[in-house]
Amino acid sequence: MNETSSHEETCIVCETKKSRGIHIYTKFICLECEKKVVSTPTSDPNYEFFVRKLKSLHTPTLYS
Ligand SMILES: [Zn+2]
Protein backbone atom coordinates (compact mmCIF):
# COMPACT_ATOMS: atom_id res chain seq x y z
CA MET A 1 0.00 0.00 0.00
CA ASN A 2 1.21 3.47 -0.82
CA GLU A 3 -0.10 6.18 1.43
CA THR A 4 1.31 8.95 -0.74
CA SER A 5 -1.02 8.14 -3.61
CA SER A 6 -3.29 11.11 -4.03
CA HIS A 7 -5.24 9.51 -6.80
CA GLU A 8 -4.68 6.68 -9.19
CA GLU A 9 -5.41 6.51 -12.86
CA THR A 10 -5.53 3.63 -15.27
CA CYS A 11 -2.58 3.51 -17.62
CA ILE A 12 -3.71 3.04 -21.22
CA VAL A 13 -0.75 0.80 -22.02
CA CYS A 14 -0.59 -1.70 -19.16
CA GLU A 15 -4.15 -1.01 -18.00
CA THR A 16 -3.01 -0.95 -14.41
CA LYS A 17 -3.90 1.66 -11.85
CA LYS A 18 -0.91 3.85 -11.10
CA SER A 19 -0.43 7.07 -9.20
CA ARG A 20 2.68 8.21 -11.04
CA GLY A 21 2.82 8.90 -14.73
CA ILE A 22 2.25 11.42 -17.46
CA HIS A 23 -0.82 12.71 -19.21
CA ILE A 24 -1.08 12.90 -22.95
CA TYR A 25 -4.20 14.77 -23.92
CA THR A 26 -6.79 13.19 -21.66
CA LYS A 27 -5.06 9.84 -21.34
CA PHE A 28 -2.67 8.58 -18.72
CA ILE A 29 0.52 6.61 -19.14
CA CYS A 30 2.36 5.35 -16.10
CA LEU A 31 6.05 6.07 -15.57
CA GLU A 32 7.04 2.48 -16.23
CA CYS A 33 5.30 2.37 -19.58
CA GLU A 34 6.53 5.79 -20.55
CA LYS A 35 10.08 4.59 -19.95
CA LYS A 36 9.39 1.40 -21.87
CA VAL A 37 8.06 3.30 -24.86
CA VAL A 38 11.06 5.59 -24.87
CA SER A 39 13.58 2.75 -24.54
CA THR A 40 11.95 0.39 -27.02
CA PRO A 41 13.69 0.38 -30.39
CA THR A 42 11.45 0.81 -33.40
CA SER A 43 12.53 -2.62 -34.63
CA ASP A 44 11.16 -4.24 -31.49
CA PRO A 45 7.79 -5.98 -31.98
CA ASN A 46 6.60 -4.35 -28.78
CA TYR A 47 7.14 -0.94 -30.29
CA GLU A 48 4.24 -1.44 -32.62
CA PHE A 49 2.06 -2.37 -29.67
CA PHE A 50 2.96 0.85 -27.89
CA VAL A 51 2.48 2.91 -31.00
CA ARG A 52 -0.93 1.43 -31.56
CA LYS A 53 -1.90 2.28 -28.00
CA LEU A 54 -0.55 5.78 -28.34
CA LYS A 55 -2.16 6.31 -31.71
CA SER A 56 -5.54 5.83 -30.15
CA LEU A 57 -4.82 9.06 -28.32
CA HIS A 58 -4.54 11.04 -31.51
CA THR A 59 -7.63 9.74 -33.24
CA PRO A 60 -10.77 11.18 -31.72
CA THR A 61 -13.74 8.90 -32.04
CA LEU A 62 -15.62 11.81 -33.57
CA TYR A 63 -14.20 10.87 -36.94
CA SER A 64 -14.87 7.40 -38.16
ZN1 LIG B 1 1.51 1.46 -17.67
Write the layout of secondary structure elements.
Elements: E1 9-10, E2 17-18, E3 21-24, E4 27-30, H1 31-39, H2 45-58
Antiparallel strand pairs: 1-2, 3-4
Percent helix, as a range, is 25-40%
Which regions contain 5 or more consecutive residues with pLDDT less than 50? none
Write down the domain tally. Answer: 1
Q: Report the principal-axis shape.
A: globular
Note the run of SSEs as H and E: EEEEHH
Strand content: 15-25%
Each distinct ligand: zinc ion
State the helix count: 2
- Which structural class best describes the helix and strand composition? alpha+beta
Biggest beta sheet summary: 2 strands, antiparallel
In spatial order, strands of the major sheet run 1-2
Mean pLDDT across every amino acid position: 83
The rounded Rg comes to 13 Å
Q: How many E strands?
A: 4
Head-to-tail CA distance between termini:
42 Å
Organism: Bacillus amyloliquefaciens (Bacillus velezensis)
Protein name: Sigma factor G inhibitor Gin
Pfam family, one: Gin
Explain the overall architecture.
By secondary structure, the protein is an alpha+beta fold. It has one domain (9-58). It is built from 2 helices and 4 strands. The chain has helices at 31-39, 45-58, and strands at 9-10, 17-18, 21-24, 27-30. The strands form 2 sheets. The chain has a two-stranded antiparallel ribbon. The chain has a two-stranded antiparallel sheet with strand order 3-4. The longest helix is centred in the C-terminal third of the chain and has 14 residues, at 45-58. The protein starts with 8 loop residues before the first strand and ends in a 6-residue tail after the last helix. Residues 11, 13-14, 16, 30, 32-33 line the site of zinc ion (ZN).
